[in-house]
């Protein structure tokens, strides 16, 4: 197991989370810029899995975009434990065949799934409040910042690409489909006016440009979701992101 350095006492430990849990050093604070990444990802693919006992919460991010996860793990520093393979493309296809979700699933149409786990931390314990209803729900008190929106968009968002027209940005959020007014208000408070149809927030073509600029530069691995002027470049960057072609 790789050793990690506690930022409080500056000593190395094989299990630095255990060192914090035993009270030998306080848990280090997660900086606001990292919290915004976490919140945005929690609105999408991220989760706080249920744990037995009274252990502090952990944050889990599974994705097929390994390039992004490696960047994310690096940026999170001491708070995450590295990128690991969750399931191969072959395993994902087999699971979908067995479950009946896709009886004819072939591995060539899937990508390997990777994951990043956090270390246990009281901040993630507090985020369990998102699950009070029995399923994950965005809290009414959430204030949408450009960074939170960016990491929500890379997780659940996409460009609705049409060969003959400029793309439209959208965010799919089926689990929150009963909260249309709340979701629209999140963006109207920031000066946008998207619509909401079939579980998806959609921006106009004009607002797409403004929305992408408002969020700022994309993180590595998701540059293609910001490319609106060239369909060929969009396709190429997307294939690079998922290892289908080399850059």
Number of helices: 9
Question: Which ranges are low-confidence, i.e. pLDDT below 50, for 5 or more consecutive residues?
Answer: none
Order of helices and strands: EEHHEHEHEHHEEHEEHH
Which architecture of the largest domain does the CATH hierarchy give at level 2? Roll
State the fourth-level CATH superfamily of the largest domain. Homing endonucleases
Principal-axes geometry comes out as: globular
Q: What percentage of residues falls in helices of 4 or more residues?
A: 25-40%
Count every beta strand, where a strand is a DSSP E run of 2 or more residues.
Answer: 9
**How far apart are the termini?**
32 Å
The value of Rg in angstroms is 19 Å
Q: Structural class of the helices, strands and pairings?
A: alpha+beta
Describe the sheet with the most strands.
Answer: 4 strands, antiparallel
How many independent structural domains? 2
CATH topology of the largest domain: Endonuclease I-creI
Molecular structure report:
The chain has 247 residues and is an alpha+beta fold. The chain has helices at 16-21, 32-42, 66-76, 89-99, 122-126, 146-156, 180-188, 205-215, 231-241; strands at residues 4-5, 12-13, 60-63, 80-87, 113-118, 157-162, 165-172, 195-197, 200-202. It has 2 domains: 31-130, Roll (Endonuclease I-creI); 146-241, Endonuclease I-creI, CATH 3.10.28. Helix content is 35%, strand content 17%. The strands form 3 sheets. A 4-stranded antiparallel beta sheet has the order 6-7-9-8. Strands 3-5-4 form a 3-stranded antiparallel beta sheet. A two-stranded antiparallel sheet has the order 1-2. A hairpin with a 2-residue loop joins strand 8 (195-197) and strand 9. It starts with a strand and ends in a 6-residue tail after the last helix.
């Amino acid at each position: 197991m790789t050793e990690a350095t506690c930022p409080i006492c500056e000593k190395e430990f094989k299990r630095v989370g255990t060192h914090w849990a035993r009270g030998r050093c306080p848990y280090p604070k997660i900086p606001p810029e990292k919290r915004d990444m976490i919140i945005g990802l929690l609105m999408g693919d991220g989760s706080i899995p249920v744990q037995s006992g009274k252990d502090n919460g952990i944050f889990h991010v599974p994705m097929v975009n390994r390039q992004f996860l490696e960047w994310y793990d690096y940026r999170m520093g001491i708070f995450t434990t590295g990128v690991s393979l969750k399931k191969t493309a072959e395993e994902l296809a087999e699971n979908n065949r067995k479950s009946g979700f896709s009886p004819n699933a072939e591995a060539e149409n899937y990508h390997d799934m990777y994951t990043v786990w956090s270390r246990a931390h009281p901040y993630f314990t507090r985020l369990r409040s998102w699950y009070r209803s029995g399923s994950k729900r965005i809290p009414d008190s959430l204030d949408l910042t450009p960074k939170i929106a960016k990491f929500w968009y890379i997780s659940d968002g996409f460009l609705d690409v049409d060969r003959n027209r400029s793309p439209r940005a959208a965010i799919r959020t089926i689990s929150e489909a009963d909260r249309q007014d709340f979701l629209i208000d999140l963006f109207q408070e920031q000066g946008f006016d998207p619509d909401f149809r079939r579980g998806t927030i959609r921006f106009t073509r004009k607002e797409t440009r403004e929305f992408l600029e408002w969020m700022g530069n994309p993180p590595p691995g998701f540059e293609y979701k910001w490319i609106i002027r060239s369909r060929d470049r969009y396709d190429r960057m997307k294939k690079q992101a998922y290892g289908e072609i080399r850059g």
